[in-house]
Amino acid sequence: MSKKYFFFDIDGTLTDRSTGEIVPSARKALQKLQEAGHFVSLATGRAAYKAEKFRAKHDFPNMVCNGGHGIYLDGELKENRPIDYEKALAVYRQAIELGYGVYVALDDSEKVYANSFLFHEQVGLRKEPTVYIIDENFDPANCDAIYKLYISIPEAEEEKLTLKDTLGHLRFAKDYLMFQPDEKKEGILRMLSYVGGRPEDVVVFGDDYNDLDMFDDTFYKVAMGNGCDALKAKADYVAAANVEDGIYKACEEHGWF
């Protein structure tokens, strides 16, 4: 069998969302894939500082993270790029002009910056551990990079933010829109450039909307049975749910072990 390059989303694919733990049969499948000589990597939208904790805890040497902008190879961080600075700055300015609160992540960490408490007044705290830095003189135009934006715009009003589609964005929390890298496919291609792999030998596993970008026709695409319908529609193969041993069964059925 020719060598394959496997990329696995974390949340809802490798892990049981109810526990946050890797499904035991999935862990066994990844071990058997490596023993069979295949390349195995995580592929997650998580920021590098979050994803690294998971990678190190579970001893995964390879990872595409930060929505495709971060690369770990053999446990070493090779790159971790911010989002497009000029486009992010334009989205920030438009949101401020429209009267929405904005938090800005200037690096890969829990810290976010703003010039007022407007975001908090409009929607409250973010849905994850955060260090808030409020400085009335803060202006991202005076900074070197932007890694993420969080804008307190309701879903029903998104059309007002006409620059929204110039950057990758997701709505994991109903009260605010998050702008972050959404380029898993490009991250996978960059990983291949490090390891000398071919796109036609790539197999991707995912379950949610942020996996749509890596469900490219160049790759072989496996959607989990517990995944969203949009992802299943693009898949070459729909596996059983992850907690029903979907990853292991898919690998076994395809003869990848």
Summed up, what is this model?
The chain has 257 residues and is α/β, with parallel strands linked by helices. It has 7 helices and 14 strands. Helix 1 runs parallel beside helix 7.
Structure, described:
With 257 residues, the protein is of the alpha/beta class. It contains seven helices and 14 strands. The chain has an eight-stranded mixed β-sheet, sandwiched between helices. Helix 1 packs parallel to helix 7. The longest helix has 13 residues, at 85-97. It is elongated. The chain starts with a strand and ends with a helix.
List the helices and strands and how they pair.
Blueprint lengths: L4 E4 L15 H12 L3 E5 L4 H10 L5 E3 L4 E4 L2 E5 L4 H13 L4 E4 L5 E4 L3 H6 L7 E4 L13 E4 L17 E5 L2 E4 L4 H12 L6 E5 L13 E4 L5 H6 L2 E2 L7 H9 L3
Parallel strand pairs: 1-2, 1-12, 2-3, 7-8, 12-13, 13-14
Antiparallel strand pairs: 3-4, 4-5, 6-9, 9-11, 10-11
